[in-house]
Automatic annotation (TrEMBL):
GO terms for cellular component: plasma membrane. Residues 119-217 form the Fibronectin type-III domain. Residues 291-352 are annotated as: Disordered. This is Interferon alpha/beta receptor 1a-like. Residues 340-352 have a biased composition (Polar residues). GO terms for molecular function: cytokine receptor activity. PROSITE patterns: FN3. The keyword NADP does not apply. Gene3D superfamilies: Immunoglobulins.
Length: 352
C-alpha cells in the first residue's frame, strides 16, 4: 500500500516530463532603431497541433512579468511600444496547447546595446558650379521622432568620380546637410551616406549609391571631343546613305554578260574606224538601257541619229566622187576629147 502511494506521484512526474511541449528554439530579436520584435521557431512536432505562444518581459531588476503577446499563433511578438531605449529587460516565451505548457525561453535584451542603427533616408542633391549640396533624413524611431533625440549621431558621406570608384573620399557632418567642394566642374559624382554614434558604438549601413553631375563649364577636351563626334556623325551618315543608294541602283540594273566580261582593250575601241566604233557605241547603249520603256525610246533615237550619220557619210563620199570628176585631173584621151569638143562648141554660128 505504501509502495502504491509513492509510485503514483513518480508516475505523474514522469508523464509530465515526457509529455511536456517542446520549448521554442532559435529565439532572436529583430531590433533596428526602436523597433523590437522577438522571433522564434516552433518544433516540427507542433505542426499538426493547435499550439499557441505567450511572450512576456520584465525589467532586469524586477521579478514580475508583463504579458505582451498571450496565446498567439504567430511566431513573433512586437515589443516596440513596451520597451524604452535606455533600459535593460528580460524577455521570455513559451508554447502552450493540449492542456500543457513548455518551459520558458529567457532572453536578455538591452536596446541601446543590442539594437542596430538604421541608415539615413531621402537623400537629395543640389548641384552647383564645381560643388554639391547633399541633404538627407536621419534615422527615425518608431514614433517618427529622430534618433538623435536618443543618442548622439554623426554622418559620414563618401563620394567619388563615377569612372574612378576606387578613389573614394569621405566627409563627416554633424547635421543632415553638407556641401562638397571644390569638385571638378561638369563631372559625374556618386555618393552614399551612413550614420554612426561613437558613444554607443553603433554604425548604420550606407545608403544605396546615387550619382549626379556638377555644373560649370565642361573641360576643353570634352568640348572638342563632342564636336569631333558631331562632325564625324554628320560626315559618315551622308556617305553611308550615298553608298547605299549607289548599291541599290547598281543592283537594279543588270548589265549584259558580254559587256561585263568584255576582254577587249577600251583603247582599241577608240581606234576603230568611224562607222565601226559608232556601231559598237550604239550596241552598247541599246544593251545597257533596255530596262525601261522610255530609255528604249531614247536608244531608238540614238539609232536613228547614227543611221543619219551613216547616210550622210555615204552622201559625202558620193559628193567627193563627183567633185573628183570636176577637179580638172583627167587622162590623156579624156583631155583630147574635151579639147576637141571645146573647139567645136567655141566657134560662133555664121549669120546669113
Amino acid at each position: 500500500m505504501i509502495l502504491r502511494l509513492f509510485a503514483w506521484p513518480v508516475f505523474l512526474l514522469a508523464y509530465t516530463v515526457f509529455a511536456a511541449l517542446p520549448i521554442p528554439y532559435n529565439v532572436r530579436m529583430d531590433a533596428v532603431n526602436t523597433r523590437y520584435i522577438m522571433i522564434w521557431d516552433r518544433n516540427h512536432s507542433m505542426a499538426n497541433h493547435n499550439i499557441t505562444f505567450t511572450a512576456q518581459y520584465t525589467f532586469s531588476h524586477a521579478q514580475s512579468y508583463t504579458g505582451v503577446c498571450v496565446r498567439i499563433s504567430e511566431e513573433r511578438c512586437d515589443f516596440s511600444k513596451e520597451l524604452d531605449f535606455n533600459n535593460g529587460y528580460i524577455l521570455r516565451v513559451r508554447a502552450e496547447g493540449r492542456g500543457q505548457m513548455s518551459d520558458w525561453y529567457w532572453l536578455k535584451f538591452i536596446p541601446d546595446e543590442h539594437a542596430a542603427l538604421g541608415p539615413p533616408s531621402n537623400v537629395t542633391f543640389d548641384p552647383g558650379d564645381a560643388m554639391l549640396t547633399v541633404s538627407f533624413r536621419e534615422p527615425m524611431a518608431e514614433d517618427n521622432t529622430p534618433m538623435s533625440s536618443l543618442l548622439v549621431m554623426s554622418f559620414s558621406l563618401q563620394y567619388w568620380e563615377k569612372h574612378s570608384p576606387s578613389k573614394k573620399q569621405e566627409r563627416v557632418f554633424d547635421t543632415t546637410e553638407g556641401t562638397l567642394f571644390p569638385l571638378k566642374p561638369w563631372t559625374e559624382y556618386c555618393l552614399q551616406v551612413n550614420a554612426f554614434s561613437k558613444p554607443y558604438n553603433k554604425t548604420s549601413p550606407y545608403t544605396q549609391q546615387q550619382c549626379v553631375r556638377t555644373l560649370g563649364q565642361p573641360p576643353v577636351w570634352k568640348v572638342l571631343l563632342a564636336l569631333l563626334g558631331c562632325v564625324g556623325l554628320m560626315t559618315i551618315v551622308p556617305v553611308y546613305r550615298c553608298h547605299k543608294k549607289r548599291k541599290s541602283i547598281v543592283s537594279k540594273h543588270t548589265f549584259p554578260s558580254g559587256i561585263l566580261h568584255n576582254t577587249q582593250d577600251p583603247i582599241s575601241l577608240l581606234l576603230l574606224p568611224r562607222e565601226e566604233s559608232c556601231a559598237v557605241t550604239v550596241v552598247m547603249a541599246v544593251q545597257v538601257e533596255q530596262t525601261s520603256q522610255g530609255q528604249q525610246q531614247q536608244v531608238k533615237g540614238q539609232g536613228d541619229v547614227e543611221a543619219e550619220q551613216d547616210s550622210g557619210s555615204s552622201s559625202i563620199q558620193r559628193g567627193q566622187g563627183s567633185s573628183s570628176q570636176d577637179s580638172g585631173i583627167y587622162s590623156g584621151e579624156d583631155s583630147g576629147k574635151r579639147s576637141a569638143g571645146s573647139t567645136t562648141t567655141s566657134q560662133p554660128e555664121e549669120r546669113h
